[in-house]
Write a structure and sequence with these properties.
This protein has about 180 residues and is α/β, with parallel strands linked by helices. It contains 4 helices and 9 strands.
């Protein structure tokens, strides 16, 4: 375990079980369709990669670069830093590492629907309901986490810790400096 981690919340083995379960559910629910998976970078990267290994249906893949955090604080402003994929008449599965305030996923979902997506379904590895600022409910959730600062497996603090193979709680002394 990394020295800056207080405790591990989701082990590497548990993550693999979660992505297998979610991939199978999505494959069943979207059977006969050809959904477009859109991952929100950078945090979704490990999750999206492992999730797609467990999806057995035909699909396409896109990414969006979206930001709403600086350090530990949500700015409340959602910034899209790249072109929006062509989603007209497509079933979209929006993939992110964590649903916290809900601002980012809510804003991106709205934009995709405005751009003609047939449907937008949200899939998140983690849900932190205590952090919610807007009403939004994902269709697929890997697991719930308490209102603590979590990192690893794509989740970061100032771009660090994304490479940890597990999800852990970051020691407060690291981000309260």
């Amino acid at each position: 375990m990394h020295n800056d981690i207080k405790k591990i919340l989701v082990s590497e083995d548990r993550i693999l079980e979660i992505v297998k379960r979610l991939g199978e559910l999505i494959s069943k629910d979207f059977e006969g369709k050809r959904p477009m998976f859109i991952g929100l970078l950078k945090g979704c990267n490990p999750f999206m990669s492992d999730l797609l290994k467990n999806v057995s249906i035909d699909c396409t893949l896109e990414y969006m670069i979206v930001s709403s955090y600086k350090g530990t604080d949500s700015t409340g402003t959602v910034t899209i830093k790249n072109d929006i994929p062509e989603v007209m008449d497509r079933d979209v599965i929006l993939v992110d590492d964590i649903l916290d305030t809900g601002r980012t996923l809510n804003a991106v979902k709205k934009i995709l629907l405005e751009h003609g997506a047939k449907s937008v379904t949200i899939c998140v590895l983690l849900d932190k309901p205590e952090g919610r600022k807007v009403e939004i409910k994902p269709a697929y959730v890997g697991g719930l986490v308490p209102n603590e600062f979590v990192v690893g497996y794509g989740l970061d603090y100032n771009e660090s810790y994304r490479n940890l193979p597990y999800i852990g709680v970051l020691k407060e002394k690291v981000y309260s400096k």
